[in-house]
Structures are given as C-alpha cells and as structure tokens.
Amino acid sequence: MNTKMILVMLHATALFSAPLQWDFEDGLKGWGPWGLTARSLPLMESVVSIVPVLPHSGQSCLQIFDDKSDCNPYAVVFQDVAAGNSYLFKGWLRASESRPMGPYVSVSAMGEKGKFIQWLPVPQRKAGLEWTEFRIEIKDIPAETVKLCLAINPTRGLTNEATAAIWADDIEFGQIPKTGE
What's the pTM value of the predicted model, to 2 decimals? Predict the structure, then answer.
C-alpha cells in the first residue's frame, strides 16, 4: 500500500468517524445527574442509574427518576464540539406513563470553564409507554461554544408533586459531515 493511499484512508476515516454511542451495557460512560439540590444529593444513585428494565436493545438502559423531592433531575453528558459544525443527537425514550408534557430532551451550549451560554432550540416529542425514537439536529451553535450538554428530564412541565421515570437507550451523538466533504 502506498503513502498516498494511506493518507486518503486516514482523511476519509477522520471525516466519517463513527458517532459516540451509549447502549448502557457497561455503565453510564460519562452520563450523570444534574439539577440535584443539597437535600437530594443522597438520592443521586437512584435518580440516574443503569437498570435491566425492558431495554430497547441489549440487557440494560439508562433510567432517570424524579421522586418528588426538591430537585429537578436531569441525566446529562457533555460533548466537545466546534462552532460552525452541525451535530446529530438521537436515541430511544420510553416513559413511565403517557403525559401531555415531559419527558424533555434538551441541549445547551457551554463555553470555556463550564460557562452556560444558552439552551438551544430543539423539537419536542411526546414519549409514551413504548420506545419512541428521537432525533435532534443541532445546526446553529454560538461561536463561543466548546461543549454541548445533552440532557434528559422525566418531569418537564409537570407539577412539583409529580413522580415519573424515563428510560433512554441506544443513544448516539456525532458530527454531521459538511456538504461537499
């Protein structure tokens, strides 16, 4: 194999590298709780956990549980990005019950040293008792963005007395190749 051929293969691999994937078979792999208060910190392991409860595929999935405490729990993961690029965040959700609001999948832009920049507009889809696919294309990222925070919340728009769980599985995140590359 000649040097030019190797360089072309390396370039193609860099452009079309596989997206990050979470099947939750081997733990959280970067996912963790957010939105907990000092009172709810002892609940951290029950708020965001890996469980063998009817996964979309494999043996386990991610569970986010809101038990009516004084917190508003999210499961979050932070991913490095570059402004000017577009990204795709997709996966599968299943809720503990079908409701008009919640669960909520959101994306926020983060700057240097974890500085919050803004929530990005994303389409909302209702998740019910069956697994439902979601796809979020992220195209307009503020220039100072260095990370995206991908977040899932089980009780968005519900009363403080609501309890709910949501399960997520087979999640992917990756850069969308630019047209012409």
Answer: 0.79
